[in-house]
């Protein structure tokens, strides 16, 4: 029986390449069922990765993002529709609710179809700006595909994006060229740290509405690298929203198309890019998990911080000021199918804050050891000279990685009455200790002599 | 402030300090007032040595000893500093407290004061003294940790 | 008392024994009366800890009993003053808790397991019986009349001035402190009278116990030296005074320094300098006296006196210098405000805002002391007849206590013992004179010798009243005796009636539970406080932090068992000002403050529905003032008053008022209780605007039955990084408008 069971398990496992960390129910919102074949390869890829796809039209009655107060799907893919509105089940508030319940959304825009009003208000609320007029596309006269858009220049051929910053891991890199036909450019507001660009337009691109009759665009919506073709938002609860400027990137037609970039023949790598994009948005990559977190009083006897040695009683509620404390946390990264030890980017560190109202310590956590699927980060320090209620806080927020916010509250107490050095241990006090005992012994001697000596006179007459 | 080193007083029961009609005749003072202070001091000293009973002198030696110890401690504090302040306080207060207790005992057992302390026998006074000293020592040792 | 007639039963010995027994029985009855008159609230409501401060003492006692003495000594309380915590072991007076703990363990040892709550509730009445006994002892030392002591004990047992702070349930420091105060005074008088080191040591021990029990021990620390000083100045220095004072000072100061909260204060603070000064002075005086006995010369007398004066002036000057230079701390705020009554209002608004610290209104004297208020000066005057050393003490105590009672209403309590003693002395004098069945005979010899004197006196003095020479009724006739005795009995009865009435109506309310009368006369209990605290206890996580005004901190800690931000201890003014600022600012300002302090729930008291006037909107100006003391730029009291200078909550309220967190929390959803536009605030008597306030950063979690307590939950940060105002308006359906025209240069995003 066991071999049968494992055989079945093996086949199942073989069939699944990757699975999202948070669930596999995917809703595809597509107004026109006929268009489904255009995304056939894309959807087939998704299914082969283990997603259970449900396709609904926005006007359908059955469509509901929630069931019994919980989300009914784990991920939503919104493909462009011609209608002005998306119906009552997909209002901006409901989409925000869906994200509040940790659902992920991949939103594909189209310049031909225009954006529905609820999507518009949603994007505006999240500080992602798109051109207000329907039909605006991103145009680049230097990076266009001569094969398909020789005149309009609205099919861009771009390399895979590089890392955003040296200390941010890149989940969207790859070899090849991405074709982005007739994209709706996005501009990200400056206020929100939750937004990040994935695929930026090259510096020679700009947003342009073909209906605009004039020869020169005087006040374009945005230009150059300010324009994003793919931008993402990761909320505080790590729900992900990806805005894809052009839905055609996902279509079969562009998955393995031959294109010409500046005279060179290239093959589009859209399939690869869409796989990377969806695996990030649907939480197959860039997912961090916190394992065991422990802190303990480091008596100093055993300085070994790995897990093999027996640890003193850990996660106590109360420490004392000016005492040695060690802290460890296990971090894993989920990489498509399983957890692997998390390695931060090169110039990036995970930090520990020991704070009461504001951090008293902010220390870099160093990796101490690795287990099969986690890295153990640790640090040791001395509690400050201030008593109070402190928090061990790991607050690690990076673009493209889920947020880590771990807080453990501990009390740091003052010295107990018997933890001060005794008087004879303080050299300055010896004189006075001597003084006291000299007094005591002198007194004893005096008492002895007094009792032994004769009274000064006969004792006082007793009272009657 | 540190109390100055004094020997306690034995008091007659007169209450008015303004009028100075002393009980003993003022004859000897006439001769003393005109001579140098040196003679006054020797006069006091001779008076003291001759008149006081030996038990009281024992008390006085103990008190002098306490004064010396206390002064030494205070001197040390001024020179070196009072770092463990509680230690300084307890050491110094031990001598001061013991001094006043002994002074009280002296007052209570001095034959010149017998009128004042009729109800208290010497043994009772001594027992009180021992009790007070025990308390004093306990507090001092506890305070210095 | 009546001299024993020569009857066989009443021989001197047996009559003495009978009198002794009678005294014991009377004292026991007085103690029983004292205890039972304090039990009104236990009978009417239940055995519950009252008010605010006792809840902290109760919590501390529970901790002590559960964890043992050493844990209590080292206790670091992390459930108060979040996130600063409080080193409780070193910042409280442990006497009360330790006493209760000892009683608890003693009873358990006797296999009587009494719940700690009942011990705490009934501790104060128990000790009041002991206080009556101590008053008896004290008064007996003052006068020889045996009835004075019993009268004083009876007065002390039931007088409302003492009952106010020692009813059952008022588990506060004064419960044992007044007993210790009176008993320490008794021991002191005994020590001065006997000149014995034993009594002095005992005084020091009980003084140490008093130091561990109450911050008002400073009163003893200053009264005893003042007594000694006055005696010295009056020329009554004696060896007894020296023995008693020095043994008290040496042992007592050492004992007081053992309490961590007091620590080095006896050497460092101005309030203790008088006892040190008198200690030094008495050494000088003793030395001078000794030398004077050796050298009876007038000249040396004056010389030595000059030396004494010089040394005293130098010492005093040194003291002043040390105080000015800061080595010795000057009088701290609470005690300084007793001398300069206007000081606290300007500089320390927290002290000024406490209702117990207000000056005493004159009816309070009669309310608390009844007929003793006019017997008291008579008793003090009578002390001047003989003016022994002990009676000097009465005079000094009376003068000092009267001054302090006039300054601060809370200090009526320290006035009460001396009022009882003095009025007992006066009253017993009346009774002793008139209850005596014998009439004193005029001695014939006296008349002979005094005739000449009388004639001479008559020649010098003008004619006196004819009634004094030939009285119609006279002092010693039976008619006058009956009248006076009858009148005294009536006065005593009225006294008892008054005391009982005051106790029952004014001082027996637990103030946690409010009682009112329905139109049909039956009692209606308003239990909102406990309802809200128990909601918190049962519906919030164990570590949920509660922000409220400091008045309720101890109660929240005691009944709801949740960490609080500020409480009645008020040791950290800046923290309280932070809470005040959060309460009085707009939501955008107070939300970051609440997030920084990890506040989960906010609690506010609102009396508008019931007409309960002790609510937070009435205290609001104190919050503003305290916050303004720290942040004068951001919080301005002026902004809460209308241009005409009124403090309004209706439509005329200033925008600052309407936007403040406290206003919004109090009136949120309030108009849903009334028909449209008729929301009425019954305390301020104002009609509120039709549109109630709106909240975006906090949401309503609980409102009690009569809307007295309202609890709000602080929202977490918005998931998408928006500020809460925009988030709530988006949810309501106001979509963000796209800015059509871009003003100014483009702001580029840098990544």
From TrEMBL, chain A:
GO biological process: protein N-linked glycosylation via asparagine
Coiled coil: none
Highest taxon in the source lineage: Eukaryota
Keyword Membrane found: yes
Secretion signal, residue range per the UniProt entry: 1-18
Transmembrane segment boundaries: 429-452
Record GO terms (molecular function): transferase activity
Predominant localisation class: endoplasmic reticulum
Ranges of residues in domain OST48 N-terminal: 25-281
InterPro entries: DDOST_48_kDa_subunit, OST48_MD, OST48_N
Entry's family note: Belongs to the DDOST 48 kDa subunit family.
Quaternary data: Component of the oligosaccharyltransferase (OST) complex.
UniProt protein name: Dolichyl-diphosphooligosaccharide--protein glycosyltransferase subunit WBP1
Species the sequence originates in: Aaosphaeria arxii CBS 175.79
UniProt lineage: Eukaryota, Fungi, Dikarya, Ascomycota, Pezizomycotina
Automatic annotation (TrEMBL), chain B:
Residues covered by region (Disordered): 1-36
Entry keyword Membrane: yes
Known pathway: Protein modification; protein glycosylation
UniProt-listed Pfam families: DAD (PF02109)
UniProt key word Endoplasmic reticulum: yes
UniProtKB keywords: Endoplasmic reticulum, Membrane, Transmembrane, Transmembrane helix
A GO CC term assigned to this protein in UniProt: oligosaccharyltransferase complex
Subcellular location: Endoplasmic reticulum membrane
GO biological process, one term: protein N-linked glycosylation
InterPro entries: DAD/Ost2
PANTHER family named in the record: DOLICHYL-DIPHOSPHOOLIGOSACCHARIDE--PROTEIN GLYCOSYLTRANSFERASE SUBUNIT DAD1
Function statement: Subunit of the oligosaccharyl transferase (OST) complex that catalyzes the initial transfer of a defined glycan (Glc(3)Man(9)GlcNAc(2) in eukaryotes) from the lipid carrier dolichol-pyrophosphate to an asparagine residue within an Asn-X-Ser/Thr consensus motif in nascent polypeptide chains, the first step in protein N-glycosylation. N-glycosylation occurs cotranslationally and the complex associates with the Sec61 complex at the channel-forming translocon complex that mediates protein translocation across the endoplasmic reticulum (ER). All subunits are required for a maximal enzyme activity.
Family note: Belongs to the DAD/OST2 family.
This protein's name: Dolichyl-diphosphooligosaccharide--protein glycosyltransferase subunit OST2
Origin species: Aaosphaeria arxii CBS 175.79
Lineage of producing organism: Eukaryota, Fungi, Dikarya, Ascomycota, Pezizomycotina
Automatic annotation (TrEMBL), chain C:
Positions of region (Disordered): 724-751
TM region positions: 24-45, 91-107, 119-138, 144-163, 175-191, 211-234, 246-267, 273-291, 303-329, 364-384, 391-409, 475-497
Alphabetical UniProt keywords: Endoplasmic reticulum, Glycoprotein, Glycosyltransferase, Magnesium, Manganese, Membrane, Metal-binding, Transferase, Transmembrane, Transmembrane helix
Localization per Swiss-Prot or TrEMBL: Endoplasmic reticulum membrane
InterPro entries: Oligo_trans_STT3 (IPR003674), STT3-PglB_core (IPR048999), STT3_N (IPR048307)
Major location (coarse): endoplasmic reticulum
STT3/PglB/AglB core domain boundaries: 546-595
Recorded GO MF terms: dolichyl-diphosphooligosaccharide-protein glycotransferase activity; metal ion binding
Pfam families referenced in this protein's UniProt entry, alphabetically: STT3, STT3-PglB_core
Keyword Endoplasmic reticulum recorded: yes
GO biological process, one term: post-translational protein modification
EC number: 2.4.99.18
Oligosaccharyl transferase STT3 N-terminal domain boundaries: 21-422
Keyword Manganese: yes
Catalyzed reaction equations: a di-trans,poly-cis-dolichyl diphosphooligosaccharide + L-asparaginyl-[protein] = N(4)-(oligosaccharide-(1->4)-N-acetyl-beta-D-glucosaminyl-(1->4)-N-acetyl-beta-D-glucosaminyl)-L-asparaginyl-[protein] + a di-trans,poly-cis-dolichyl diphosphate + H(+)
Known cofactor(s): Mn(2+); Mg(2+)
Biased amino acid composition, Basic residues: 733-751
Membrane protein topology class: Multi-pass membrane protein
Pathway where this protein functions: Protein modification; protein glycosylation
GO CC field: oligosaccharyltransferase complex
Function: Catalytic subunit of the oligosaccharyl transferase (OST) complex that catalyzes the initial transfer of a defined glycan (Glc(3)Man(9)GlcNAc(2) in eukaryotes) from the lipid carrier dolichol-pyrophosphate to an asparagine residue within an Asn-X-Ser/Thr consensus motif in nascent polypeptide chains, the first step in protein N-glycosylation. N-glycosylation occurs cotranslationally and the complex associates with the Sec61 complex at the channel-forming translocon complex that mediates protein translocation across the endoplasmic reticulum (ER).
Family per similarity comment: Belongs to the STT3 family.
Name of the molecule in the record: Dolichyl-diphosphooligosaccharide--protein glycosyltransferase subunit STT3
Source organism of this protein record: Aaosphaeria arxii CBS 175.79
